[in-house]
Amino acid sequence: MLKAPDHQVAGHQAHAGKLGPLVDGSGCFYKPLQSGERGTIEAAFYSSFSSNSKVPTHIRRFFPTFHGTQLLEASDGSGMHPHLVLQDIVSNRLDPSVMDIKMGSRTWYPQASEDYIMKCLQKDRESTSVALGFRISGLQTFESEKLGYWKLDRDAVQDFTLEDVKLTLKRFVSSNPSSNAEPDCLLASTIYGGSDGILAQLLELKAWFEDQTIHHFYSCSILTVYEKAGVGEKGSRSRTGAEVKLVDFAHVVDGKGVIDHNFLGGLCALIKFVSDILVSSTNRSKAEGDLKEQTEEIEFSIANDSKA
Amino acid sequence: MLKAPDHQVAGHQAHAGKLGPLVDGSGCFYKPLQSGERGTIEAAFYSSFSSNSKVPTHIRRFFPTFHGTQLLEASDGSGMHPHLVLQDIVSNRLDPSVMDIKMGSRTWYPQASEDYIMKCLQKDRESTSVALGFRISGLQTFESEKLGYWKLDRDAVQDFTLEDVKLTLKRFVSSNPSSNAEPDCLLASTIYGGSDGILAQLLELKAWFEDQTIHHFYSCSILTVYEKAGVGEKGSRSRTGAEVKLVDFAHVVDGKGVIDHNFLGGLCALIKFVSDILVSSTNRSKAEGDLKEQTEEIEFSIANDSKA
């Protein structure tokens, strides 16, 4: 029984008779091959990547597992259509928070057509891509059983400024994302921080991008995913399932012996933002901790004074 | 007594009645302020940078020392003209090898005029900037007393392909740069390698660029400089004076709290090339060393055999 995914935050969606991805609820994500060379390129990428012995094992976890292609009834009712069979990244999650970040200051590549280049260049200039090296394409953050998800779709993010991006990276790990108040970043140390948190995973990816010259990943997205329910459970950092995944490879080109400086530059900018949020939230917790300690000391000395 | 510099490899030159930089032969480089906002921006950059306490001391050595501005007789005979008074990077060198590398996949910045953006974009696409994240703007390598310098001026480098750039980065540290034969990279381990060689300096600069959000350095160049005479002198690595310097700040803009991912991406690509040259030349020396050892062992056993 295939159906449209519940937690898709960007890209074409299989709603209202449109062609879009489907999930089977037991771990597979069926992505319709895009028309023209985009579909060919993405299928070729998954096929070559999954069998490339030069890709280190610890890097494979950042890519959805590939299970080949399959002819399926298309979601738009247009008949049979070839689909990529991929790992469904959120299949065993209850209330996943997901952010889609389109990487690169430039989403066009030199070999593309002039029309395509000019269209991409305009989008890159209108969005934060040129300024930041990436843009947020969509997100959902689970707030609470009562409030449900705080969501930003394509329309909501398309006019994002630098300040909007900074704020959204904070809201994504806050207990009060939908509030107009300053995001509290209460989940930052658990989700962004830690030895296998989002930041550590981004740094691992960065080290690979400083060296790999196999592929250039134009218009590719980083997904950051986690499970709020896992936060706060003692000794269960892994229960948050904080995870970084790369998706969307319809514009991957041969690296020709050069590193992907365009993706890498944006990745470094993202790392710096995430790391700044982590530092300031840690400092704040520390300051609050210090304050609490001071307060307790004062209370203790007051209590002692009153005894004396 | 001011004169045109002997070792300028790129940029406007003070020849044939043209406006260009002058040197005094005792350590100062006088750069005429460019017209319009370019001159204003560069003077403002030097002035603010030299007094900015947020710039770490170990990073300052990558920038020419700034000694203010001064009105001087212009090299084109047009009368008095304001000049930046800067450290002359090659003043106490005998036969400096110099390479000028214009950094960034993109030499334009969002705030620039549409005409300027389109002009830069075209140059970036025609050169290796888009593909590599940098382009070589000119170089000279000292070959020998007899052959003098191997030079590539602006015209020679403007049609450079990826392969030309790779080859030139090898030739820059070869004893046979002007030859059509494969560059021997004999100087690679001394100039690129070592604890204070070019690669180590580039890595130090990279660490700063991963963190600094003060300036974005559009159209800025990295100069790599060394002295061939120093190579091979025992215990005198420092005599080669292998040095990395940043120059040309007429298009520096406010970083607005974002890292300079455009410069950083190109820097990472450059680092990867330099590091590959170093690894393969070290492997070759090692292979040649192994071969020499094997040959000596064989000769030794032959000699012993004939004695027996």
From TrEMBL, chains A, B:
Keyword annotations for this protein?
Answer: ATP-binding, Kinase, Nucleotide-binding, Transferase
Similarity comment text for this entry: Belongs to the inositol phosphokinase (IPK) family.
Query: EC?
Result: 2.7.1.140, 2.7.1.151
- One GO term (biological process): inositol phosphate biosynthetic process
| One MF term in the entry's GO annotations | inositol-1,4,5-trisphosphate 3-kinase activity
Any Pfam family from its record, for instance, is: IPK
What do the Gene Ontology cellular component annotations say?
cytoplasm; nucleus
User: What InterPro entries does this protein map onto?
Assistant: IPK (IPR005522), IPK_sf (IPR038286)
- Protein's name according to its UniProt entry: Inositol polyphosphate multikinase
Q: What does the record give as the function of this protein?
A: Inositol phosphate kinase with a broad substrate specificity.
According to UniProt, the reaction catalysed is: 1D-myo-inositol 1,3,4,6-tetrakisphosphate + ATP = 1D-myo-inositol 1,3,4,5,6-pentakisphosphate + ADP + H(+); 1D-myo-inositol 1,4,5-trisphosphate + 2 ATP = 1D-myo-inositol 1,3,4,5,6-pentakisphosphate + 2 ADP + 2 H(+)
